[in-house]
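To: structure desk
From: M.T.
Subject: fold request, one chain
Message: Could you run this one when you get a chance? Sequence is below, nothing fancy, just the single chain.
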Amino acid sequence: MENFSLNFLAFPLEQMPFVIISLLVAFTVHEFAHAYTAYKLGDDTAKEQGRLTLNPIQHLDPIGTIFILLAGFGWARPVPVNRRNFANPKLAGVLVSLAGPLSNFIIAFIAFGILFFMIGSAPPFAVQLLNMMVWLNVLLFVFNLLPFPPLDGYRIIEDLAPPQARVKMTQYEQYGVLLFLVLVITPLGNYTIHPFLSVMTGAVRAGFQSIFSIF
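Reply: Done. Structure tokens follow.
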């Protein structure tokens, strides 16, 4: 029975502590970055709802967290944003959307740097945790910039689009969500989105390696 139950996990059981810690940090900082950027640009909606915090409980979605542990795909609670509170809604919208993925990029960069300089002297558990932090945050950085709703990449394109195009995007957004789910959940993703993510995450890690190799 034990082996049967483990087949439901998206990650090996021995990696689960590192996955959980990395997820707590990645999701929490990602959503906090959205909330903090929106607040600094004039929208206190997230702050009023208790989302301007690094408390993971305020940002994690229970179902989304379970899904990522069991299926390798999940989500956090989206930060509420009221564009009408921004002096420049288009620019502010782009910056708020970009803040989340950028925060994951920064976490991955820092974790990679620590790992790079500590390699050979760090205890095994620290190496495993840092490797997971790098991998997961690079993945979230690339994944969230994909141009599919409801991801941040789509919101950036939506904010940059002319008003007429934005109206059309809103009308067809539900179909974009459906296409996104098909690409992520079905085997079709093995020939489309998954190879792309693999190539891009590898490229980002290679970039990190090149930067730190200078030192």
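Reply (cont.): The radius of gyration is 18 Å. Let me know if you need anything else for the meeting.
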